[in-house]
Amino acid sequence: MRTPETLIKYASTDTAKLILSNQTLRWSSPELFEDPWELRADPQLPFDHLSVNQAMLKTASAMIFTRDLPSGDLNHPLYKAIRRWRTEDRFHDESEAYGALSELLSATAGTLELKLRKLECAWQKMISSARVLAMSD
User: How many Å apart are CA 112 and CA 120, to the nearest integer?
Assistant: First the structure.
C-alpha cells in the first residue's frame, strides 16, 4: 500500500492549531461522531425482527408459486419443503402458503430478534474499541 499524499482531518480552527503546535493527531472514536453520514455508534437498523420475518415469509410463499424453480441451498430444509410443495400443488394461493409458513416458522421471529440483538451488541462492542483515521490520495 502506498503512503497517502494527503491527510484530511476535520477539526475546528482551535483544534487544528493544537494539532499543529503539539504535533499530535487524535484518532477519533466513532461514538463521538455527530455527522449523520459517518459511522454511527448506534446502528439504527431500518428494520426489526418482525419485518425481517414477514419479508422472509412473503419470499418463501412467492417461491412456491414462481414459474421457474427458485434458486437456493438445495440441502436447506425449507428449500426442500418448497420444492416438494411445488410438485404436490400443496397450496391454492400465496396467502394460504403464507399462513401455513407462518405457523411452521413461528419460532423464527424470536430467533431473528435474538440474532439482531447479538448483532447490535457486537456492533456496540466494536464501536467502543474502534478508532478511525481517514487518509486519502
Answer: 12
- Angstrom distance (rounded) from CA 98 to CA 107: 15
Q: What is the pLDDT of residues 52-71, one digit of tens each?
A: 999 999 999 999 999 998 88
pTM of the model: 0.60
Contact 109, 8 (CB under 8 A): no
Around Cβ 26, how many Cβ atoms within 10 Å?
Answer: 14
Residues linked to residue 28 through DSSP beta bridges, in sequence order:
132
DSSP string, the chain: -PPPSEE-----HHHHHHHHHHT--PPBPGGG---TTSPPSS---S--HHHHHHHHHHHHHHHHH-SSPPPS-TTSHHHHHHHHHHHHT--SSHHHHHHHHHHHTTTHHHHHHHHHHHHHHHHHHHHHH--B--EE-
Spatial separation of the C-alpha atoms in residues 67 and 51, rounded to whole Å: 26
Q: Give the domain ranges of the chain.
A: 1-137
Angle between helical axes of 49-65 and 108-129 (0-180°, round to 10) = 130
